[in-house]
Each structure stands twice: as C-alpha cells, then as structure tokens.
C-alpha cells in the first residue's frame, strides 16, 4: 500500500502527516494530500508521489536578441552554419573515411581561434604529433589552438570545465568512452551516452562543441539516429575520392536553412573554398554531345548549375541495366515509365546510365525535365544547344510543373553565359535580360518540339 504524503500548496514543503499550519512558510490550511504524479503502473517504474519543482513559463512574444554568431572567415563554412557559429550549439559532422573531415575541422579551428574564440581540439583517433604534422602541412602551426589527444569522456569534460573554451572540437564521437557505461567504445550505448553528455555540457556551460561522426556503408551516421536528434546541426561532408570537389551539406540546422551547401576543392595545401560552384562544376564541360544537359538547380539558398550526363545503349542482357550516380534511382525509373506511357518512347532492351558530373548529388524534383532531356538526347543521338539550361518537374500524367525560385535559376544561368532556358509553363513569368525562356506545358510537347517525336 502506497504511503500517503502531504505538501504545502504555498511553498511546496512535504510532510508525512497533515497539520493545520505549515512549518516551512507559516501558512494556515495550506497543507493538502498529494495525489501523485503517476496514476498507473508499478510504483518502482513510475514517478510515484514525489513532486518536482515548478518550472517558470513564458509567453511566445519575447524581446530577447538572437544569439550572436562568430564567423570564421571561411565563407562556405559560415554559409552552411547559417551565418556563423552560434554559442552553446552542438554540431555533428559526418562523412566517409578519408574525405577530409579532420582537415576541414582543423582549418576551421584555426580560423575560429584567429577570430578570437578560445578553441580546443581533442583528437581521439590520432596522436598529438600527427595532428601537429597536419597543421604544419596546412600552414596552421602558428594558430592559437590548444590540442589534446584523449578518449576518456570524464577527463575531457573536466578539462573543458577548467579551461572554459568557447569552442571544442571532438574527433571523433565513436572513439569517446564513458566509464559509467559497460560497453566498448563505438558501441550504440557509448555513442549515445557520449553525445548526450557533450550536448548537455555545451548547453549548460555555453560552449560550442563540434563532433565528428563516422558513417556506415549506407552513408548514415554510425550509431543510433538519436544522436542526430540531440544536436542542433548535422552536416555531411560529401564527395568522390576521384574528384577534387568536396561538398559540405546541412541536413539539419536549428539556426539556419537546412539543405544549404558549401563547396570546397581539395588541394595540396588543404581545402580551399569555391565561391562560384556552378563555374567549377561546368569547367570540364567541352563541346556539347548527345546525352549532356545543363540543369539549373537550387541547393539551400544558392542556385547551382550542374551537368546531367546520360548514356543509352543496347543491352546484351535479358535484364537491361539502370545505373545512377548522384540522383535517385527510383526517380529515374519513374521518368522512364512516363516517357514510355505518355510519349510512346520505349527504353526496353536498352541499358541506361545517368551521372551528375563533378560528384554532386541532386535531390530536388526540378531535375526531372533535365534528366528526361539527357535520356532523349542520348537515345536519339541529338545534342541540345550548348547555351541552354533545362529545369522542371514531371508529373505522372506527363504534365510539367513549374519549379520554385525560377528567377534565381535563370539569373545564375545568364551570369554564366547561357542564352536560352527551357522551363515549364504555368509558373510566374520571369524575364531576364539576355536570356530567352522557352516554355513547355507537357512532356509530349517538349519531346515533339526538341526531338521530333511524341
């Protein structure tokens, strides 16, 4: 049988029996019987009778100024962070092994330290001498960054509490181990516990913490997805090892736009930012050839032009191949089905290969029309004009839907020397000087006009 308890409604003091006057605050007739917080379940597994403190509540309207941001001077990194580093924020950076995560964060640590932030870099994967060698190679040896090599979470938090830095970089979260968790470092329990302790420490002490996270072969952060829910910002560092381009993509950001990207180029002296990624992605584009179409896309808040490459060839196998790099394979299957069902253009018995040039990954539906144009160009062995960009979403009925931010797409194309654009009709009419916009209402009309079919 649960023991009855009493509390004062004025001051919250608890008593084992009722009395007329509270000994804590002196109020009369303020002591009432506690009904308990939990109404069901076993007593050992529920909140029981004991009450907590009353938390202060506030209105939605506030006069608090937004938290100040610190810019590191690397424009692409500041852009992805939403305008700079927010105090007391927890940031998770993931990426494939060897993609350049440690190089990027060491460069970022040096820049933040030079801008006035007290910065500590904690490496759990490399010795201090290895980090110093990288710093010398990158020309960062003189940066005022404090360095440590440690994996014991308790020792790291104790050091951070004593040093009181404004920014701490943990490389990586999978190497940290908490002595109160009975499992090996890198296990789900250890990763969850370490991320929780570091995030809580960042919030309570006003320290910004950047954590490096390994990724699985599926491309997700290794460990529980709850780690991504704990932190404020999740960044993925993407790129192909065969390309010098690296893309830092925000997939979650509580302080700025998600899906923002920053583009870097890997050089012998580290990562250098690319201020005009469209020109870089199109730099290797030569004479227009069948299967090559330029797509004007939007990544976060910036327009980016990339080349969509397609190859269609007779298949020697009974089951034709469908290979995609940088785009959604399910979306490609849908485009092929719409072309056959609505336009009468079959791809049966043909191998289809689709590639986004430069190692870029495209996810927006506005790339549908550019992909369809590349497929038809490769199938019919007909090249579109070199000065033309294409964008638009294709519906299952074969209709073309207008893409958002049409004006920004067209302005970026005009800035890079393109003189024509193919876009869906029905959207907001936008005129850009020096750029002729040709509109199409449906896929069949587009195919008939540019490829003589449909």
From TrEMBL:
Keyword Hydrolase: yes
Keyword Repressor: no
Signal peptide start and end residues: none
A Pfam family it matches: ChlI
Residues that bind ATP: 95-102
Chain span(s) of sequence motif RadA KNRFG motif: 252-256
Annotated HAMAP family: RadA_bact
Domains as described in the record: The middle region has homology to RecA with ATPase motifs including the RadA KNRFG motif, while the C-terminus is homologous to Lon protease.
Family of the protein in this entry: Belongs to the RecA family. RadA subfamily.
NCBIfam families in alphabetical order: sms
Role played: DNA-dependent ATPase involved in processing of recombination intermediates, plays a role in repairing DNA breaks. Stimulates the branch migration of RecA-mediated strand transfer reactions, allowing the 3' invading strand to extend heteroduplex DNA faster. Binds ssDNA in the presence of ADP but not other nucleotides, has ATPase activity that is stimulated by ssDNA and various branched DNA structures, but inhibited by SSB. Does not have RecA's homology-searching function.
Record's protein name: DNA repair protein RadA
Source species: Phaeobacter piscinae
